[in-house]
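#data-curation
PF: Archiving a pair of folding outputs for the training set. Convention for this channel: one message per protein, sequence first, structure tokens after, nothing in between. First:
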Amino acid sequence: MSTSAPHSDSTAAPTMRAVQQQSFGGPEVLQEVELPRPEPGVSQILVAVHAAGINPTDWKNRAGGPSLTPLPLVLGWDVSGVVQAVGFGVTLFKPGDEVFGMLPYPYGVGSHAEYVTGSARAFTHKPSGVDHIQAGALPLAALTAYQALVDTADVQPGQRVLIHAAAGGVGHLAVQIAKARGAHVIATASSGKHAFLREIGADEVIDYREVDFTEAAHDIDVVLDPLGGRTRSRSLDVLRKGGIVVSVVPGDPGDAKKAADLGVREATLLVEHDHAGMRAIAGLVEAGELRAHIEATFPLAEAAKAHALGETNRTTGKIVLVMR
């Protein structure tokens, strides 16, 4: 089978700005550079990136602890932008389409740049009612929450869902997704974020600094845990029989046995690029049931400042880099 050349925008510049690192370390290792503009391969699209979210995995990979991708490295998995070219076999999109999505995790990294290529089915059409900053904040965090709550836990109306770190990037989107599923949502966060969480739908809020959540939460069907460690292990104690803890951080070796002894389940989720999931997220956005809270935006050249802010662990919602 032969392949034809990608349909491309001949006026586009052959190079692009990107934020790259040559070594692991603090935010200061991030440097703005000029790199060759990529071209889409088979089943890929080339996207002119307008905005791209930053997630904890970005600064963890930047620091090298442990990095899943080799140096030199351009970080970023979130993308919102405009299709510039399509590779052979792509039927879902054409140049000029506005799209958003998550590059295949962890090895499809590279969206903190003016252009990026990725599998066409990592994307879907951007909802027309939101801008690129809003759309660029959503993919990785929203897919994590959706795959945990819907695909893994199958949250049902009336179930009791406990969400840890509920004001964070994954957490505040998980609150909204659980509410859209008809769940009763219990959220943990510091007291200063309680009003925000109630505004986005939390039915109960626990101040984890003052209250032991294992005493305040009970008969829980589903726990979403972005923290891991003792939080994951102790979350098993609040589940009703048959309940599940879904964590994005690996647990202790004893968690599986503890879960079996209690008659509950535990699972570790690694987010995957997901065309169907992105379409579902777009549907929630269009229905007014899902919106990212934007803590701050930074131009691409100030990526180091964005990382430094994210690493304080005091932000609410998402931080977004803006390319255009």
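PF: Second:
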Amino acid sequence: MQHAVGSPLPPPHQPGHGPAVGWSPAAHQPGPPQGPAPVPPPPPPAPGYPTAPLRAPAPHPGPAPGQGPQQPHAAPGQGPQQPPVAPSAPSAPPVPETTGHVPLPPGGPVAVPSVPPATAAPDPTTTTLAVLLIGPAGAGKTSVAKYWADHRRVPTAHISLDDVREWVRSGFADPQTGWNEHSEAQYRLARRTCGFSARNFLANGISCILDDAVFPDRPVVGLGGWKRHVGPGLLPVVLLPGLDIVLERNAERSGNRRLTDEEVARIHGRMAGWYGSGLPIIDNSQLDVPETAHLLDEVLSRSIVSPPNW
């Protein structure tokens, strides 16, 4: 029987007939037989129940065309054998999180720079250093720090605490309008930011110099915070010219960086407490910026060999 439209569906299995294998729509289509003639010729299939034609044994045990590989016969009483499963390739180790080729700073603070044994003093211009330049307003901290960083023979960054504090635009707590809890909180936040930045630069082989007006008689914003945020390897140096020089330089400033003469005199008097503290002090009253930077290298060379106790 032949359907008028489309190919017939395979018939269900019924008793007395073999399994319906080798189903092909071509079995119901008239035409010459495909492929080599079967030997011996098979009996005609029952109407509506096509069966696979019998063929001569294959000369080799390879799979028949269009069929997958033959499964091995199972032993009596056993289920069909499963093909062996190829072992999976070992998974690659997880890739650690990175930020490109720039490593983040470690959790620990910056250690004191190690000095190899040598007869000559170490060269501070080729050593990776973290320097804290302390001084009153008008001492020339920013100018000296920038010049020193610009003329080193190794990569060096300049980090100014005042610049970082002024990143806050709306709601900036200016200490000139009164030192209160808001200005102190922003100062602490800026110092932590500077400390993280310094450690980040040092972790990538870049020296840094920070400048800040640290008061010796105010521990809440003293050196202890810098040591916590950067580490004991930070080398502090005090830049303290005479009062007349500080007043003259302050008069050349503009904006909120310029203080009143009374405020400048008060800050300068408090900075005098660094004398006798054990920190190196540079009086740059009669020195220009390049001469002060050269003297800073000499002071740092001694600090590397014998770090100050602070």
